[in-house]
Write a structure and sequence with these properties.
two-stranded parallel ribbon
């Protein structure tokens, strides 16, 4: 399985109200990529960037901040 071969940091984001990405998909990422960062944004549908842009930005800043801490 190609996904199991991923060795770089992974951030998976799902809108909690998404009708497109099933909650089981996020659970599958947790099983397949245990080191992945998984974020479910409350009150967001599939287009998280439109529904909750600030929450998505917070998730991205937090993720990249952990991956690339300031020197």
């Amino acid at each position: 399985d190609a996904l199991r071969a991923v060795r770089c940091p992974v951030l998976a984001v799902r809108g909690a109200a998404s009708a497109v990405v099933d909650p089981a998909a996020l659970a599958a990422y947790r099983t397949t990529l245990p080191a992945a960062t998984l974020v479910e944004i409350p009150d967001a549908h599939h287009h998280v960037m439109l529904d909750r842009p600030a929450a998505l930005a917070d998730a991205l800043v937090g993720f990249f901040g952990r991956q690339c801490p300031a020197a």
